[in-house]
Every structure is written in C-alpha cells, then in structure tokens.
Give the backbone structure.
Amino acid sequence: MIQNPKRYTITAALPYTNGPIHIGHLAGVYVPSDIYARYLRLQGKDVAFMCGSDEHGVAISMKAKKEGITPQQVIDKYDGIIRQSFHDFGISFDNYSRTSAKIHHDTASEFFRKLYDAGKFIEETTEQLYDAKADQFLADRFVTGTCPKCDNPEAYGDQCEKCGSSLNATDLINPKSTITGETPVLKSTKHWFLPLNEYDTFLREWILEGHKNDWKPNVYGQVKSWVDGGLEPRAVTRDLDWGIDVPVEGAEGKKLYVWFDAPIGYISATKEWAAKEGKNWEPYWKDQDTKLVHFIGKDNIVFHCIIFPAMLKAEGSYILPDNVPANEFLNLEGNKLSTSKNWAVWLHEYLQDFPDKQDALRYALTANAPETKDNDFTWKDFQARNNNELAAIYGNFINRVVVLTNKYYNGVVPTPNAFTEVDEQVLTELKAYPAVIASSIERYRFREALGEVMNVARLGNKYLADEEPWKMVKENPERVQTQMYVALQIASALSVLCEPFLPFTATKLKNILKQSETNVSWNDIAKKNDLLPAGHQIGQAEILFAQIDDAEIQKQIDKLEATKTANKMENTKAEPQKETATFDDFTKLDLRVGTILEAEKMPKANKLLVLKVDTGIDVRTIVSGIAEHFSPEEVIGKRVTVLVNLAPRALRGVESAGMILMTNNAEGKLVFVNPDAEGVLNGALIS
C-alpha cells in the first residue's frame, strides 16, 4: 500500500454503450467510486476521477444489427443517455470520455505498437469459426450452440449463462451463426496474443504476496484461482468490422480486442482531461507517488487484476493499481439483473419517476451495497430506508434544529452558556466521527462509513430527545441556548460528513445553514467547537427527504411484473401443428356456446370440478380438470365454449357429457377460450 500518496488516479469501469445504466452498475461501481473521490477532494487531495463510454466490441455490433442501425448510431444514442444520467445523478467524474474519440484510438494504437515493437506479443495462426454466407469470422457472441458442460442448447461462444462456464466458440456442440443461422466452418486466421503465462511470477509476487492483507477476499480469491489454474496466452486482436484497427502491416480487417483497448481508455481519458486543464497527464499514471484505484464489478476482476496489469508491466513505464475493491452483484426483487430481459431499474427512468430523490437511491444502494456478497434490491426496502431512516432520523433531526432555532432566536445561532458534562461528551463524540468515517472509506467499507454518518444524526436526535429544549425554554432559557448551540454544531458537521454519500442533501443543508459563509472543512469538525459560531444567521427549514408513499412503490413493482409477463410471453413457443385434419373431420365437432350454472368440487379429487352447463340444447353435467386454477364460485355464470358431441365418459362415478375448451396464458394459468383474454398468445393450444 502506498503511504501518503501525492495524488490519486481513480477509475470506474467503462460502461458498454449498448444500453443505459441500471442500479446494478451503480451499486457495483459508480456510487462507491464517487464516494471515494468526493471524500478525497474534501481532504484536499489531488484527484483524477476517470471514466468513459466503452464503444467497441461485439455487444455494440450485435445491438446495431438487432436495431437495424449503424454501430456509430448505437454508441451516440447510449453515450448521450449514460452521460446525462451520470450528470443528473451527481457522479463527479473529472472526465467522462469515449473510446471512439481520436485521442483514445491514438493512445491504444501507440500502446499496442510499443508492445509489438518490443516483441511482447506472440503471433499465431488459429482455426476460428467462419460464417461463409455472411462472409465473416464470428466473434464469440455471434455463435450459439449446446454447452459441452451442462447441455444448455443456448450457450454463447464465450460463456454459458446457465452454468457460468467460460467457453471458446469452438467448444460448442452444434454451433450456429446468430447472423444467418448457418452452421459455421473452421477457417485459419492470424492473430496476436499476450503471453500471460510469462507473467506468472510477477503476478504471484505482486498480488498473491504483496496484496495478501489489503485486497478484498473476493478479489484476492478470484485472482489466486486464475493464477493457480495456469495462465495461457490471450488474444489481443480479433476479426471484426467495428473497433480500432490493428496498427501493423498484414493486419487488414483486424481490430484490437475490446478487452485490450477498453482499459487503455482510462489512460486516454486522463490525457484528454489533462489537456483541458493544462496539466501533465503522466504523473497520474507513471509516478510511484500516485495511488491508482480501479472500481469494478466482480465480472471484471480478471481483466483489471491480471490482464491489464500484465499489459502495464509489459509496457514498462506505468504504475500498477494499489487496490481493486471490486463489489459483488446486486440482484433485483430476488432475480438476477438482466439488460437483455429488461429486468432492471434504469437510472434515467428512476430520475424521471423520482425527481430530486437522487440521494434516496444513493443511500439505499450504499446501505445495501454488495461489498462482500451478492445483495438484493427491493422497492419496499428502498421505501423503508427513505422513510424510516433518511426522513425519520436525518431529516427529523435537521428539521427540529432549524425550526427551533428560527422559533426561539429568529434563525441566529445563540451564544452558549456553560457546557454541562452531557454537552462536553456529545461534542467530544462528534469530533471523533470524521476519523472513524475516514477509516472506513479508506478501507473501501462504504456501507460501514454511511452507517457512521447516520450515527451522527442519531447522536443529534438522542441529544434533543434527552434534553427536551422545547420543555425547558420557559423555565431555563439560558440552558436552551447551549442546547441549541450544541445541536447546531452537529447539524453543521452532518452537512460536511454526508457530502460523499448524499451530495444533493449536503448542498441543501449547507444552504439552509448558510454554511458557505463559514466554510467548514472535514478536518475542522475534529478540532473546533464553533463550526457555526454564535451570531451566525441560518435560513428557514426545508424538507430534506420527502416521504415516498405506497402508490409510488406499487407503480414500480407493477412495472417489473409487466416486464416479467412480457418475458414469459416472448419466451413461450407455440406447440407444433398437429397432423392435417380434413374439412369432414372438422365438421364432426359440435362446438356450442354455453353458460356454467352450477359448480362444485369433486370429492377426494384436487383437480376436478363438477359443472352444470346450459348448452342451449340441454343442461348437462361436465367434469372439468380446472379445480387447481378456479374455485367453484369463480366459474358460475361464465360463458364458455363446449364440445357437446364428445363421447360421454365416467370420471369417479360421474358421467361427463362434453368438454369445456381451455388454453393457458403466458404464466401457465388456465383460461377459458377467449382470444381477448389477458395473456393469451397467438399459437396458444386449445384443449
């Protein structure tokens, strides 16, 4: 670990521009990295917080083909959405760049060329899958087939999403091109590889020995597993039509593999920022007194802890990351987040649905951060954290302090009288919090740090509840001056300590307290009793955290339920057509409209209802296997389609003379045949 670094370079994983940002991205990467950067700035540190859109690779090409537009149109669309979402949510990047920018193409090309000229790559001709009809080599994601490990028939060429196994496209059984549906053939092609096996000793010394005690167990464990499993050469080029050209002769039609060019995006973003700011970019990447920290999700650990460091080591002039505090995954309402299935809470939609509630989401995601294990986001928990914690604890304390100060002293901070032992104890406890919170942040325990910030609000609430100035103001106004003075110091401290976590709230509170005039710093809290000095004028109370009502939450739950139903409908395949029937066959069926007059459960039979049905020609008994889907009361009065000339059949001693026609909706529930019924799909089998 670097002690007392001169500067900090903080990177947040570059989001793919094939879709918007969702809460999984925020919880895993962007909220924790923003907390860290904001905290360091409050400490007066030199910080370069870098990110940008990852705009190359197969995911972009696939999205373009699916939408019938160009890759450039895809990246422009989603870069705009992502960039605006980050801005509106308060993620404080010093620079948010794009890998389609010329400065990135130049930087990545120069990086490759330097390694190429130094002989750091190996060149190999390999057999890869080729779609003859499309006349192109197939990147991993353009191939699907049967997983050789779990027999999943819809595995991709790089990974089986059912069993989680990493694959090569050539491993798949019965591979198919997703472009044309054709069976691909093997064809020889030349590529360049980074021989990771040559960096085994370096990685063992640097990580497995050097960072044994300071990297998170989930990160260290994954790295150790990869290194112990044996490292192999990794391709750095690909046969693609979208990306950065490989800058050597004989590489026409080949692009830099996206995993190679994307992390270089951190460097090009820093170059772009430094040029705008009139700074030298190199110390932020090449000075040993710089602390480099990568914020990523667990799916990027191998790239940032093995492959990118090997690239930097091979280049020779760059520093290595001091830490890579990767988070685990955030699930949504008990299910894995999925961009392709629209099972997500999209940031840009949240900001529309919950205006001015950025901090409510930042709080919920931090308080429930997947720092050591996968966690689950639910809308009910989000509501509870806003209403029962932010509003009831933090907001309640601030409101009482500001309202009472305005009521008793016209908003002027009162002059304190002698401090009691309780006052001294509270002020001493308050002074300890900056160091406690800082320690948690510097160890990347942001959930723990946020808990301590809320403990400051709890300290204030308890102090007011115990002292009860509203009761004492008539009998001992001198004592109340001291009480309110102490409470105002806690409020002032909160406006600073919460800033990394709740930046919009911090700004509101500083405006209420008119704190910009007093310029309180993080370090002042531990040293001073008069963060808000006597005689200072504060403003009027404002609601910091509005309650979120049940209707707002139900709207979000309903939206997810609609997504779940849509996914089921999309994935439902119609039964294959039965053998051909003649017109004469069809005319044998006598179908009538009927009404169910009576219904009761068949004794000792869970699935059967005994129905009395008026068919228009008679009233007859029909036994139907629908009892697990409908109660007798639900079906009485239903108009139904009846096959009346079905040969009678005795079921449990009751003769059934006909059949009620049914089908299933997308959720598998039986419904009476009615094409307009909710959830009935084209192709639904009537039986």
